[in-house]
Design brief:
alpha/beta; 9% strand
Length: 178
């Protein structure tokens, strides 16, 4: 009665099922699995789809050849299992460069990097079939009230969203932002 089936449209993030179980007090408790292996695992348990941050799928330091291999394996796993990618997002919080935020950073170079990283991530999401693109401001000032001027931060965030909306329109992508 409670067994999930694809028609229930359960989706899971690579960051959840791929978590190796490391915490601040210890080493990993589960082996790392490739994104393709995670898709096969999700297919076996009746999932509908899989979601990802850009670097959940392709490590930030991957060479172009490594990226192409990972993407090809992931696409094959999606085709083999029938899983879909309804949503993608960008990791704009894990790297220490984002300690002061991404789109709202006080450093213009960090803001520019965040935009470029997001455009690449949007391209990857669309390539995988994502129809929704999620923005999660993990380090945009919520943990440190005094890190930046809140009015300027909102302005910077708005400018980033406007820029990315234009990028998506210019690319002809049929993508919803969330």
């Amino acid at each position: 009665m409670y067994t999930p089936k694809p028609e229930h449209k359960f989706t899971f993030g690579l960051w959840t099922v791929g978590n190796i179980g490391r915490d601040p007090f210890g080493e990993p408790v589960r082996p790392a699995l490739s994104p393709a292996d995670l898709v096969y695992l999700l297919g076996d348990v009746g999932a509908y789809g899989v979601n990802f941050h850009d670097n959940d799928l392709v490590p930030i330091d991957a060479t172009p050849a490594e990226r192409d291999k990972i993407v090809a394996e992931f696409k094959k796993a999606l085709a083999d299992t029938g899983l879909v990618v309804p949503m993608a997002t960008t990791n704009l919080f894990g790297d220490a460069i984002f300690k002061d935020g991404a789109f709202t950073s006080n450093d213009a170079k960090v803001r520019a990097y965040a935009l470029q990283k997001t455009m690449n991530s949007i391209d990857l999401g669309v390539e995988m079939g994502a129809e929704i693109y999620v923005f999660w401001g993990g380090r945009e000032g919520t943990e440190t009230d005094a890190s930046k001027d809140p009015i300027l931060a909102v302005k910077r965030n708005r400018e980033a969203m406007n820029f990315l909306c234009e990028y998506v329109l210019d690319q002809g992508y049929d993508l919803k932002f969330a």
